[in-house]
Amino acid sequence: MAASSHRIMLGPLVAAIDQGTSSTRFLVFNSKTAELLSHHQVEIRQSFPKEGWVEEDPKEILQSVYECMERTCEKLTQLNIDISNIKAIGVTNQRETTLVWDKESGEPLYNAIVWLDLRTQSTVERLINKTPGQNKNHLKHKTGLPISTYFSAVKLRWLMDNVDEVHNAVVSHRAMFGTVDSWLIWCLTGGKSGGVHCTDVTNASRTMLFNIHTLDWDPELCKYFGVPMEILPRVRSSSEIYGLMKSGPLSGIPISGCLGDQSAALVGQMCFQDGQAKNTYGTGCFLLRNTGPKPVMSDHGLLTTVAYKLGRDKPAFYALEGSVAIAGAVVRWLQDNLGIIGSSEELEKLAASVGTSYGCYFVPAFSGLYAPYWEPSARGIICGLTQFTNKNHVAFAALEAVCFQTREILDAMNQDSGIPLTQLQVDGGMTSNRLLMQLQADILCIPVVRPSMPETTALGAAMAAGAAEGVSVWSLSPEDLSEVTSEKSEPQINPEESEFRYARWKKAVQKSMNWETTEPVINGNSMQCSCYSHNPLQAHVSVKLHFPHDGCSRRAVKQIVSIN
Fold first, then answer.
1. Which of 183, 266, 345, 461 is the most buried (most CB within 10 A)?
2. CA 18 to CA 91: how far, in whole Å?
3. Where are the beta strands (DSSP E) in 315-469?
């Protein structure tokens, strides 16, 4: 370890925990220049216990944060950078992912149910069927969200109905609910020994329990989902001191910024003005457009969400959001499930080697379709195959799928705002794929602008933490914000070709619809129906009926299932 006299003095530094769906990172920035000084990354394992289920281990998530912190501090020390100059830590996280833990033991009571998880589909259908006119937007006036498997409330309801440990902890007032930010902040600030149970407005706005107008938990929404308000974290702004780190090399440093990952990217891209937008390519793909201090409701399948609230006494800003479930996740699927690539870099090489999908279209609706359709019954399809099609064409179609999905949400956003975007600011891990960026420009018919420093999500969390009252080492005044260097991809194909390919994509999307239902499925001489009840103690009903070979009417079964 270098002597203190030889350490490089850079002025105040600010760190960020970036806990994503597929990895955790810890990054340290210079608050005066926004330069990234060092970082460390650890991959997170996902488990798929049943079809459509996606879980992660809360302890592994927490351990990955500690590991990234320690390794980054070691790297800074090797660079002769004094870690005592880190003045604040921000947290940004995968949103909606749902955890429940025991406040007395500090132990998680079940795995984290990841935002992509589909186990609540039948609960969602049941809720929608109970609304006037079977309207999935029944709660949108308060939440900005459709009733969907995506959001936390139905995941929490499932945990309370189906996991005894969770049910018992709720009954005995030991349960704490939170999204990933709440779990991390509670643990890092002391856990069962005085940890701070809080969340910020951006994460709270993704639960379906939060009123985006009052900026607080809504008693009627909590009653609707049967969630006791005592288990919820306190809602805070995105930029204030929540508590101090209680252990590790950064013990005593305030945690003072908290933003859901897509809001953090909006801040990191400096989209502070009404009308500014960014698209992040991560596990999913998320296009957010700042709509200013008033929420704007979409008529075209977009979400209304809280963009940020950068201080206790500062106004909340809102955004329209187009959410795509599967973007980078399709790369992982091609690698882990099909084995046709060994790395994400190999995907770009395969796709570039053919330069076309040769009429092959890939709709990766692994978790249904999100914006603008909100169709949980959709499933992934690859269509337009011929004997000529090979893995290179499928690789190209996978990249095109990310771009087509972005085109769909951009079209919806342009229709809602009435002012078409003239260029698209992008960030996230997939933006290092130059072929993808060129395809995106071609399919959108507008330039795509990528910052040279792609870690805008972590940067946004660091900015919020550094600007917090009581820290104040990062100015968010427009004249003080660092100039961002970027690369631009211009469209290179004619609009007619782009429109033709997009029309074929839309046709493929229609083919993916209504694939999966909770209607009974005939299998030989028996029928299996599995559905999750919304009511405690009636959590899982399984009906199996056997038929003779004489073609007995199936209508009776539908009646039995509907009665249940």
1. 461
2. 6
3. 317-324, 361-363, 381-383, 424-427, 448-451
Q: pLDDT tens, 179-237?
A: 999 999 999 999 999 999 999 999 999 999 999 999 999 999 999 999 999 999 999 99
Q: CA dist 357 to 354, 400, 435, Å?
A: 8, 8, 13
β-bridge mates for residue 99, sequence order: 178
Residue 323 three-state SS: strand
For residue 384, how many C-alpha atoms fall within 13 Å in the half-sphere facing its CB? 19
Do residues 14 and 86 touch, judged by C-beta distance below 8 A?
yes
Cα–Cα dist 488/200, whole Å: 34
- Mention every residue, 6+ apart, whose C-beta is less than 8 A from residue 415: 299, 300
List pLDDT tens digits, range 293-348. 999 999 998 999 999 999 999 999 999 999 888 888 888 899 999 898 888 888 89
How would you classify the pairing of strands 424-427 and 36-43? unpaired
| pLDDT above 70: residue 47 | yes
Q: Would you state the structure tokens that stand for residue 331, as one six-digit string? A: 């790369």
The model's pTM is: 0.84
Distance CA 267, CA 397 (A): 32
Q: Which amino acid is at 449?
A: V
CB < 8 Å & 24+ apart, contacts of 380-385 = 380/326, 380/512, 381/508, 381/511, 381/512, 381/515, 383/508, 383/511, 384/357, 384/359, 384/360, 384/504, 384/508, 385/360
The CA–CA distances, whole Å, from 207 to 111, 321, 385, 481 equal 18, 15, 40, 32
pLDDT band at 518 (very low <50, low <70, confident <90, very high): low
Give pLDDT tens digits for 51-68: 889 999 999 999 999 999
Q: Which two tokens stand for residue 434?
A: 């130059």
DSSP 550: T
Burial bucket for residue 544 (CB in 10 Å: 0-12, 13-18, 19+): exposed
In this structure, the chain runs to a length of: 564
- pLDDT band per the 50, 70, 90 thresholds, residue 538: very low
Determine phi and psi for 426, rounding to 5 degrees. Answer: -130, 160
Whether the ω angle into residue 372 lies within 30 degrees of 0, i.e. cis, is yes
Q: Answer for the pair 23, 40: CB distance below 8 angstroms, yes or no.
A: no
- Residue showing tokens 């914006």: 371
Return the HEC string of 20-36. Answer: CCCEEEEEEEECCCCCE
Tell me the C-alpha distance between 92 and 267, whole Å. 11
Q: What percent of the chain has pLDDT over 70?
A: 89
| Residue 217: both structure tokens together | 């938990």
Q: What pLDDT, on a 0 to 100 scale, did the predictor assign at position 325?
A: 83
| Helix locations, 418-469, DSSP H | 434-444, 456-466
Cβ atoms within 10 Å of 485's Cβ, excluding its own: 8
